[in-house]
Amino acid sequence: MALNYTTSYGSPVNYPHAAQRVSTTGPALLQDFHHIDSLAHLARERIPERLVHAKGAGAYGYFQLTQPLDDLTSQPIFLKTNVGNKVKATVRFSTVAGESGSADTSRDPHGIAIKLKTDQGNLDWVCLNTPIFFIRDPAKYPDLTHATKRNPQTNLKDHDMFWDFFSQNPETVHQIMILFSDRGTPDGFHQQHAHAGTTFKFVKENDNGTTSFIYYKLHVRTTQVKTLTAAQATTLAGTDPDYGTRLLYDAIETANSKPGHTENDFPHWTVYIQTMTPEQAKGEFAHIAFDVTKVWPQSKFPLREIGKLVLNENPKNYFDEIEQLGFSPSHLIPYVEATPDPLLQARLFIYPDTQRYRLGVNNKQLPCNAPLPETKIANYQRAGMASYVSQGNRPNYQSSTQSLNFVGPKGAIDSQINDNKRQEIFDGSAYRDLSMVTADDFVQPRYLWETVWNDAQKQTFVDNVSGHLKVVKNPAIIQNQLLVFYEVDPILAERIAKAIGVPFIPPPKIRSNFLITTTMANYTTSYGSPVNVPHAAQRLGTNGPALLQDFHHIDNLAHLARERIPERLVHAKGAGAYGIFKLTKSLVDITSQTVFHDITAPPIPCTVRFSTVGGESGSADTARDPHGFAIKLKTEQGNLDWVCLNTPTFFIRDPAKYPDLTHATKRNPQTNLKDHDMFWDFFSRNPETVHQIMMLFSDRGTPNGFHQQHGHAGTTFKFVKENANGTTSFTYYKLHVRTSEVKTLTAAQATELAGTDPDYGTKLLYDAIETARNKPAPTDEDFPHWTVYIQTMTHEQATGQFAKIAFDVTKVWPHADFPLREIGKLILDKNPQNYFDEIEQLAFSPSHLIPYVETSPDPLLQARLFIYPDTQRYRLGVNNKQLPCNAPHPDAKVANYQRAGKASFVSQGNRPNYQSSTQSLNFVGPKGAIDSQINDNKRQEIFNGSVYRDLSTIKIPDDFEQPFDLWARVWSENERVAFVNNVSAHLKGVKNPAIVQEQLYVFYQVDPGLAQGIAQKLGVVFDPKLHSNFVHFFITTTMSFNYTTSYGSPVNYPHAAQRVGTTGPALLQDYHHIDNLAHLARERIPERIVHAKGAGAYGYFQLTQPLDDLTSQPIFLKTNVGAKVQATVRFSTVAGESGSADTSRDPHGIAVKLKTDQGNLDWVCLNTPIFFIRDPA
């Protein structure tokens, strides 16, 4: 039985795809909870992607023990009694460096993470498709990640960064050689091996009461590794970027549909281990035991089979079941333990810490991560955001009456502590390993080159690595990397140098480390204190575990785990630049906004971001997609945002359909693949989309670079003018930003570039600006530039002859009736210095308006006024408007009652944060303030009617007149042929023939010949007779500041919500009201779990007695006696919440922050010289 559609809290909804508004032409309503809830949820559907392993696929299956390990461990799942038993497994495959929309076939290490759900907890095997890794010292991990990601300025993959890091860290050469062999481009996710890489240990309780342990490495091997050549991988990146995901899904579905299928029909692997005794690890093989840049030779440590892994079920919902998976090598079960492997030590921290950030502190409660029901969770962790699973009323501390049992299995994860018979003994002080490179680092790479690879494999490696190195711009980096290859084998270095076409002079000897002396500033911690050896982690002695006291290492990893914020749900992939807007024609006749009056005024600074709409952050710039073109003008009266697309129309006019539109053009929630059936199912059922579909599948859908396209705001705004006679008037307008020549790509060119250069548009924009800047005397025309136009429509036209197009974004305003009127020039003349800070954090919204520039009842605009800023509140935080990239012009003084909230950078001082009778803000601002039109019937629209839902009924011929004009009168014959080819190629991917027929009927309404031409191209029969017609579908103060919005524009009546008439419902267009409420809802950041209640003050610390005999720290030396160091002090109670009494019996905190010229020094104190416990556990 079909389910009834409901709200998120379970109440039925009759018309979920029609937004409420005032009568048939009025604004949207704030009372339409379901519409607002849908948009607000949509804005939050993206969580931060994984910093590494972002793109992936997954499946379910089982691990089955085939060969017992009774001689090695006491863990029951590996014992003889469990041979043949199946343990539930969830597996996720991934690339490492690519973003969520990147190609599966990129040259990259590939992840294979396996979660076994045992009755004693989850055991995670976190693997790569290579048995080694780039580095052994985890302190280098942030640098490795950054060097293989995007350039922070250009936001492009950077070959110089890549090879600069690897050439300075020669221990990476072993992994580099495997990566640039064909193993770096596996043929599908499931046709490759998996290797845990780092070393673990099995523990055994012996019959005589003693314990023993043995080290092991895990290998999960397929019967046949299949790889792609570099050319095949590149082609597939363009034609099918989700190739590996699709192959895995289809392999499982094909096997399940096969009659009498066996486990060998499914993707399957044999699981092996290699083992090493503690004596071997301390003796002859100490140099490889815990060094993940090296393998354990199988001749010395043979593979031992233990079981098999079979994948036989696809997920039903990719996000819930796969994307939310949280893997960690710290997820161990009794008798399976960690080792001092340095990289493992760091991963024990960063993996779960990353999941706490991405998924929340209770991520282990999510069904995909939760252990089996029979594994009863019992600890003292409680509460935290999104706590789904209760531990009831048990005390959340070690109670004397209801305490938990600490005497668990002998093999519990910390049983080895204080048990010298079953763990390693480490002697030595705190130690930093500089990862000195020795001759031993080249032994295994040399063996791989000289002995393992045949001539063809050697040539493939030389071709692959030279092809990548050729792109490096700095010749010194190439030479540095050739030096590394020279240490592997001189012939190898000479062959690569010859392939690149550069001379190579052999070195006297290899460098011992990568510490480079420069004239740059000293390296410091995040709080400003200098660090001598930031790329070496502290550990106990030369072979012991990592130390908790190594704050900088932990801080680096914790920050790295949080570098990804949620990507935009739409417009995720983009590029940006700075520029200016120059007014060339005055608009004094239609608006009182002075920005548009004086053509001799200085240019207005602006920031522009270009984007694709549907692709994720790693997708191709050349994908067929509407392209975003967002412009932020920083005026002295606040920010004015022009939010445009490269098409003058949009798919829908009713914003209630926006969530469905977004979902249908994104990935299938089960397969995580782009789905042609979903795409065309939506568009065929919503025929008003056909106009935009025709533009999308013309060559305008694949522009040749971001900056060689037009921009169109699409939705309708209005200019307001205060007339000389005291009256006001307004004019509706549409904005157009037109380049001198639109350049497009053919479908074939776009597909090829998606494979060879997915960042093509970003690179083209960056290079165009740099090329112009490098000219001796560049002019405006040398830079990317556009002419800005408007079309205007009177209120009488909008309510009369042209009512059907005035506020319908699926239609254009014909130039014949509404000619273009030039207003200015847009020039982009500067690239950003840091892409994330300056471009990725940009927050655009059509609600960012300035006086005398106002909204209209355009239905889509009404929804965008809410969802755009609401999305940014989620992505960037409630104070996103304070970020430098979003903050208004310095002369646009922000003054309102919004305060606090997470990451509040800009203070409004000690002004009251409410409407005070003594220090209130001025509400009588400019006549054109953003709400001046309220209660002024002479300057705003009059709406007669009750609250109304428009069902978006398709009107024939209204909804097809303009598409017909585009097809029959505007396009040339070549453009018509290109459209038929493009759209039929996409429709061919649809599996359900009924959907194809529905869409053909839509095209039939445009022109019968168009529908028949596409049908013929598809090879299907189309009979329009088989289809039915479309039927569905105020206080005066003396303060010096005017009250403003959060982005700097003045407001006259901030304490009066807009509504329909004097008794009607509130309006969705009342942006300031919604922004105020939304900010208010986010003003509280999580309080401290301890020390919540407190007070603070500023002051100084003054040295009175020097400590020259004890320390060399300058602030404590005789020369600084009497000097004052700035101090901030916070006093607190410990256990009480933020509203508790200051006089409660409680330890009291006194935290002192000294801001020295060498960094911050924090003294974190109590009012007692002792504490309750000494063991931090």
UniProtKB/TrEMBL annotation:
Family membership: Belongs to the catalase family.
Protein source organism: Gymnopilus dilepis
GO molecular function: catalase activity; heme binding; metal ion binding
Domain Catalase core: 6-406, 524-923
GO terms under biological process: hydrogen peroxide catabolic process; response to hydrogen peroxide
Name under which the protein is recorded: Catalase core domain-containing protein
Keyword Iron-sulfur: no
Domain of life: Eukaryota
One GO location term (cellular component): mitochondrion
Classification via SUPFAM superfamilies: Heme-dependent catalase-like
